[in-house]
Amino acid sequence: MQQREEKLLDASVESLISRVAHLKNALHSFIYKLENEYERLTWPSVLDNFALLSGQLNTINKLLRNEKTPSFRQQIIIPLLLSPDRDEELAKLTEQRVPVFSHEIVPDHLRTKPDPEVEEQEKQLSAEAARIGTEVAQKQIQTLNKLCSNLLEKLNNPRDDRDADSAAIRQNKPSFNPADTNALVAAVGFGKGLSKCRPPGPVAPGHTGQGPMMSGGPTLQQVTIGGGSGQQQGMGPGAPQQQGQPGMKILNVI
């Protein structure tokens, strides 16, 4: 009976090691693609790799839950030999991850409980969860479920619906200010709101300083400022500038 259990345990361990090796190879292949072939990697290929990994994990879980598989929780591992020297066989089996099986490494690899700090944090979280009343916990659960439902609804909505909603929002929202548009048209067409002082500039010969620009619009008057005598002299429409006196001409809006 004992030999049968030992054989069954050995077979289960070998099968589990084989499944884990397949999972490890799939992970290595996927990581290599992500690091070296990311430019050619497509989203359907990524989903296929995730599906492969998920299937292998499900296979391992089924193997562990199988009735014929012995319970590994009831098995005890006892280190028979501890040595600070390098063990080549152990390094080969662990792919150089555990080259030495010493007193320092054994507690980490053969630990059956979490670290004391982690265990203390778990106790604190359990105590906080126990202090929350049933009504408060139920409200929190309902709020979380509502948030998750809204998020899933937004994610499951077709993209066309979201684009249509965005387009409707853009059409309903005005992209201009009517008051600014009217003010700009009035300024360009009729000079409304413009300053009456124009900067100095050349005037074409024979240009009459006074005359209607447009029907009902503002008119221009030519004014000359003498530079030699420092006197300012208003000139009538079409009046020539005094000879020998430099000056500048300003067109004022009347």
TrEMBL record:
| Descriptive protein name | Mediator of RNA polymerase II transcription subunit 8
State its role. Answer: Component of the Mediator complex, a coactivator involved in the regulated transcription of nearly all RNA polymerase II-dependent genes. Mediator functions as a bridge to convey information from gene-specific regulatory proteins to the basal RNA polymerase II transcription machinery. Mediator is recruited to promoters by direct interactions with regulatory proteins and serves as a scaffold for the assembly of a functional preinitiation complex with RNA polymerase II and the general transcription factors.
Q: Subunit comment for this entry?
A: Component of the Mediator complex.
Any GO MF annotation of the entry: RNA polymerase II cis-regulatory region sequence-specific DNA binding
Species of origin reads Hucho hucho (huchen)
GO BP: regulation of transcription by RNA polymerase II
- Disordered, as annotated region: 201-254
Question: Where is this protein localized, as stated in its record?
Answer: Nucleus
UniProtKB keywords: Activator, Nucleus, Transcription, Transcription regulation
Q: List, as start-end ranges, the regions of compositional bias called Gly residues.
A: 225-237
Low complexity: bias regions: 238-247
Q: Does the keyword Hydrolase apply?
A: no
Positions the record marks as coiled coil are: none
The UniProt entry lists the main location of this chain as nucleus
The UniProt entry, under InterPro entries, shows: Mediatior_Med8_fun/met
Instruction: Give the family per the record.
Output: Belongs to the Mediator complex subunit 8 family.
Q: Extract one GO cellular component term from the record.
A: mediator complex
